[in-house]
Amino acid sequence: MTAVEGTYAPAPGAAPLWRMLAVQTTFETRLLLRNGEQLLLTAIIPVVLLALLTAVPVFDTAGYERVDFLVPGILALSVMSTAFTSLAIATGYERRYGVLKRLAASPLPRWALLLAKALTVLVVEVLQVALVCGLGWALGWRPHGSVLAVAVLFVAGTLAFAGLGLLMAGTLRAEATLAAANLVYILLLVLGGVVIPFDQFPDAAASVLTTTPTGALADGLRDVLADGAAMPWGAAGILVGWAVAGFAAAARWFRWE
Amino acid sequence: MSSFRAVEIDALIKRYGGTIAVDGLTLSVDPGTITSVLGPNGAGKTTTVECCEGYRRPDAGTVRVLGLDPQRDAARLRPRIGVMLQEGAGLYPGARAIELVAHLARLHAQPLDVATLVDRLGLGDAGRTPVRRLSGGQRQRVALAAALVGRPELVFLDEPTAGLDPQMRRSVWELLDELRADGVTVVLTTHLIDEAERLSDDVAIIDDGRLAAQGSPLELTKQDESTVQFTGPPRLDLASLRQALPEETALDETAPGRYVVRAHVTPQLLATVTSWCAAHDVMPEGLHVGRRSLEDVVIELTGRRPS
After folding, report:
1. pTM
2. What CATH number does the domain containing B237 carry?
3. Predicted pLDDT at A62
4. CA B131 to chain centre
5. Domain range for residue A85?
6. Residue B14 host element (H or E)
7. Which of A34, B74, B156, B289 is 20 to 30 A from B147 (CA-CA)?
8. Based on the domain organization, do B146 and B118 belong to the same domain?
9. In terms of DSSP bridges, do strands B258-263 and B60-65 run parallel, antiparallel, or are they unpaired?
């Protein structure tokens, strides 16, 4: 090759993989934290609900102290808001605007893009957990139970939501994803055991609702954090089931453009 | 120059369902040149370029870019090429213009200086504006900056100046000249004939998914015949002029009021045309004797004006 001097002289090459991953994760996290509508779902609604419902007895809390009942539910809501709602909406619009297509021609491998999205979700969840648990602590919440069990539930829950979120983002139009993801958020906020105990619903409905990802995650987290259970295998199993089904379907039907 | 080709496409076929988008296209691009892929909408320009970029898997034929297979060797090829999608697509709507270019820069080993590049494209003022609030022309330029920032050897630009005002278009043309001078190979699609003529070392005219002609603008417009062109009132009755001219002369009104005589042009023939004009009280404005234009070639090859 002839050596050419000049401003635009070719010097191609990918950055090291670890740097691409770090750069992509930082970038996506920054965009997400800057987005007002997303922050409403991931931070403001969970925090306001926790503060409000702890202060005022709106719903019966199934024999628990209100804050002990609410923190696990709000944590489940937080995971859903980030791993499902935010991820689906952001990815849906990235697909619609050709961002995913354009990135496919960049040095960033596709698996690294997906991993960066996973890491972004993780970073935001860590911030959410700090926020919700910090507020809970201030409101008198004193959890017990196994940290390991909580971590397992978080990971399984995140994967369950992310699979479904990506499935939605990769198959529906961006506007449809936006509407559906918000609708699911509201429905499962009310019906998913986040703020209303399952025993307030008819038995038949309750047994269905506990098998939703939100229901299983809220239930599982409550078993550990409020009741001190070791490892809620039932809830974890449901979440793993959703994760496998969601990712299998997303792998089959996700369209990049 | 070595026999190495920056792009080598051989008998490429690409179908979408029942329709054939690219139908046996053969095309090559020499390194360090600007090649324009010119043709009407739907001719297969974008599909061809997207086969080179690795987005589309050819149904038949071969595509080699920098000697690599865009499908099999995608991971090795991607860092070496720059890509600008049509209409400047592919930008995060929530990102700010400079932030986005800087982000893509960080995915590369030795990127260009982002601030300089963004200034060069006249985006300095828009740098902190989110992409979703940029004008179409600004978005185009951000996408162009994103294609160049990784210091690629080869860039594919899909209609890079669409939606730009004339001043910005000229500025982008100058930038592409600088890229070539610095050794970057440029492949662009366009339906603007003046753009292809002004920029290209090589023009590939595509029609109905096939290569209709390829060569430098000079080669494409070269021919034995030359033309006499003039403009006058539209829809003149040319019958008497046709009779006065030698038999194998072609005489057409290619656009309303625009007349083209194709023949072996001699001083006598020119005199015949002008005296016919005088007899009919027609002022032949812009009277011009010369080779045909690239536009004439395109219309002749494709039967229509690229639009």
Report:
1. 0.86
2. 3.30.70
3. 81
4. 26
5. 17-253
6. strand B7-16
7. A34
8. yes
9. unpaired
Q: Considering only CA atoms, which of A10, A32, A20 is closest in space to residue A106?
A: A20
Domain that holds residue B212: 7-220
Query: How far apart are the C-alpha atoms of B231 and A149, rounded to whole Å?
Result: 85
b vs e for A84-97, b when ≥16 Cβ sit within 10 Å of the residue's Cβ?
bbbbbbbbbbbbbb
Residue A115 in domain: yes
ipTM: 0.88
Residues B15 and B60 grouped into a single domain: yes
Helix/strand/coil for A156: helix
* Residues B210 and B230 both lie in one domain: no
Would you call A88 an interface residue with chain B, using a CB distance cutoff of 8 Å? no
Residue A5, token pair as written in the block: 């001097």
* Residue at B298 is within a domain: no
B47, B50, B108: which to substitute to probe chain A, counting the most A Cβ within 10 Å? B108
**Residue A4 falls inside a structural domain:** no
CB-side neighbour CA atoms (13 Å) of B111: 25
The residue assigned the tokens 């730009």 is B164
Listed in sequence order, the residues at least 6 apart from A33 whose beta carbon sits closer than 8 Å to its beta carbon are: A39, A124
Averaged pLDDT, A21-39? 95
Kindly state whether residues B66 and B211 are assigned to the same domain: yes
- B37: distance to nearest CA of chain A, Å? 20
Same domain, B77 and B110: yes
Size of interface A-B (CB pairs under 8 A): 113
Identify which of B3, B24, B2 has the alpha carbon closest to the alpha carbon of residue B211: B24
Domain membership flag for residue B295: no
Report residue A251 as tokens: 């792998």
Same domain, yes or no: B116 and B235: no
Q: Is residue A6 part of a domain?
A: no
Q: Does B68 touch chain A (CB under 8 A)?
A: no
Cβ-proximal residues to A167 (8 Å cutoff; 6+ apart), any chain: A246, A249, A250, A253, A254
Whether A83 and A165 have beta carbons less than 8 Å apart is answered as yes
> B51: nearest CA in chain A?
A105
- Name which residue leads in pLDDT, B13 or A60: B13
Is A10 close to B183, i.e. CB distance below 8 A?
Answer: yes
Q: What's the confidence (pLDDT) of residue A257?
A: 76
- Cβ–Cβ below 8 Å for B81 and A105: yes
Q: Among residues B186, B220, B254, which one ends one of the domains?
A: B220
* Residue pair B51/B58 in contact by the 8 Å Cβ criterion: yes
Residue type, B92: Y
pLDDT digits (tens, 9 = 90+) for B78-87: 999 999 999 9
Q: Where are the alpha helices (DSSP H) in A139-227?
A: 147-171, 174-191, 203-209, 213-225
Residue B297 included in any domain: no
Contact status of B109 with chain A (Cβ, < 8 Å): yes
Domain count, chain A: 1
Q: CA angle at residue B161 from B159 to B165, to 5 degrees? A: 150
Q: Are B105 and B70 in contact (CB under 8 A)?
A: no
| Confidence at residue B254, expressed as pLDDT on a 0 to 100 scale | 85
- The four Cα atoms A202, A206, A208, A211 give a dihedral, to 10 degrees, of 180
